[in-house]
Specification:
The strands form two sheets. The protein has a five-stranded parallel beta sheet, sandwiched between helices. The protein has helices at residues 4-10, 12-20, 23-30, 44-58, 90-97, 138-152, 158-167, 188-203, 239-246, 257-274, and strands at residues 37-41, 64-68, 79-83, 104-109, 122-125, 179-184, 206-211, 227-232, 249-251. The chain has 296 residues and is an alpha/beta fold. The mean pLDDT is 93. The protein contains ten helices and nine strands. Helix 3 (23-30) crosses helix 6 (138-152). It folds into two domains: 4-152, 3-Layer(aba) Sandwich (Rossmann fold), CATH 3.40.50; 159-274, Glucose-6-phosphate isomerase like protein, domain 1 (Rossmann fold, 3-Layer(aba) Sandwich), CATH 3.40.50.10490. Helices cover 39% and strands 16% of the residues.
C-alpha cells in the first residue's frame, strides 16, 4: 500500500511551483530589509530556520540568527519568524509569547486557524504544502524554496530539478549501508541536518550531519565500508580523498541541493521499508509536539 509520506515526497515539484507564485506576497514579511531577525522552529522547522537565516544574511538583508524554539537566543530582535507546520507546537508558541513588546512576530504555517495565529502579527499560510504524514517533507522544502526566491530570486530550474530527483535511481540500495553522513556548506548545512533527521525519523537509521569541513574533525573516524557520505553541493578540497581513505561510498552531484533533499527523503522511505518500518508511523513521534503546561 502506498505511504502518505511517499506520495507527499512525489508532490514536491508541483507544490514548489504553486508556492513560488506567492513570492510577492511573502517578500514583505520575510525579507524585512535592515531588520535584525530571528528564525525559530523545532525539529525539521529548526533546520529550515537555519537555511532561511543563512540565505537572508547572505543576501545582505540584515543580521539573521536561527534558533531552536525550545531554547532561543536571548537577544533583542526586530522581527521573529516562527516556522511551524501545525501551528500548535508548544515550544514555538512559547518562543513567540516570550518576545518583548515591539518585536514583530511572523508565523509561517500550513494550518489555518491554528493557535499560532493568535500570537503572530503576520501569518504566511502555505496550506498547499500541508501534509498528512508525521514525517515532514513537502512543507519544509516549500518554505525553503520560497525563502530562496524571496532572498535571492527564484532558483532557475528548481521545479525541473525536483522532478529529476524523483526519477533518479537511489545512490545505493538501503541494504548496502548501515550509516549515512550528510554534509553541507552555507545554507545547505540546514539541508544536511534535515536529511539526517529524515533517516532517523522514517527508518530509525544511523545518520549524522555536519558542515562539510567538520567531517575531518572527528566524524571521519566512524566512517567505513558500509557508510555513505552524501554531500549537498561541492565538497571542499581534500574531503574527497578523506572519504576514500575511510572506505566510504560518496554521493556528490551538481543537482540543486533542495532537489537533492528530495532524493534523500526517498532514500529514507526505502530504508524504512527495507527495515520493516512504516514511514507513516514513525516510532515515538506525533505530527505535533503539544506539551501539557499547567494553567495553559
Amino acid at each position: 500500500m502506498p505511504h502518505h509520506t511517499a506520495a507527499e515526497i512525489a508532490s514536491q515539484p508541483e507544490v514548489w511551483a504553486r508556492v513560488l507564485r506567492r513570492t510577492g506576497q511573502a517578500r514583505p514579511v520575510l525579507a524585512a530589509p535592515g531588520e535584525r531577525v530571528l528564525v525559530v522552529g523545532c525539529g525539521t522547522s529548526w533546520y529550515v530556520a537555519a537555511c532561511l537565516a543563512r540565505l537572508r544574511e547572505d543576501a545582505g538583508l540584515g543580521e539573521t540568527d536561527a534558533g531552536c524554539a525550545a531554547d532561543p537566543p536571548r537577544r533583542r530582535y526586530d522581527r521573529v519568524l516562527a516556522i511551524t507546520r501545525s501551528g500548535t507546537t508548544t515550544e514555538v508558541l512559547d518562543a513567540l509569547r516570550g518576545q518583548p513588546a515591539g518585536t514583530r512576530r511572523v508565523a509561517v504555517t500550513a494550518s489555518a486557524g491554528a493557535p499560532v495565529e493568535d500570537l503572530a502579527d503576520d501569518v504566511l499560510l502555505l496550506a498547499e504544502a500541508d501534509e498528512r504524514s508525521v514525517v515532514q517533507t513537502r512543507f519544509p522544502t516549500a518554505v525553503v524554496a520560497l525563502g530562496r526566491a524571496v532572498f535571492g530570486g527564484e532558483p532557475e530550474g528548481l521545479v525541473a530539478a525536483g522532478a529529476a530527483a524523483l526519477a533518479a535511481p537511489l545512490p545505493v540500495r538501503p541494504d548496502e549501508v548501515d550509516h549515512v553522513v550528510f554534509l553541507g556548506t552555507g545554507w545547505t548545512v540546514g539541508l544536511a541536518h534535515e536529511a539526517a533527521l529524515k533517516i532517523r525519523e522514517a527508518a530509525g537509521g544511523w545518520a549524522e550531519s555536519y558542515p562539510a569541513t567538520e567531517f575531518r574533525h572527528g566524524p571521519a573516524a566512524a566512517a567505513g565500508a558500509r557508510s555513505l557520505v552524501w554531500a549537498f553541493g561541492p565538497l571542499p578540497a581534500g574531503l574527497l580523498d578523506l572519504v576514500g581513505a575511510a572506505g566510504a561510498r560518496l554521493r556528490a552531484t551538481e543537482l540543486d541541493p533542495l532537489a537533492e533533499l528530495v532524493l534523500a527523503q526517498r532514500f529514507a522511505v526505502a530504508w524504512a521499508e527495507a527495515r520493516g518500518r512504516d514511514p507513516d508511523r514513525p516510532r515515538l513521534l506525533t505530527r505535533s509536539v503539544i506539551l501539557d503546561r499547567p494553567g495553559r
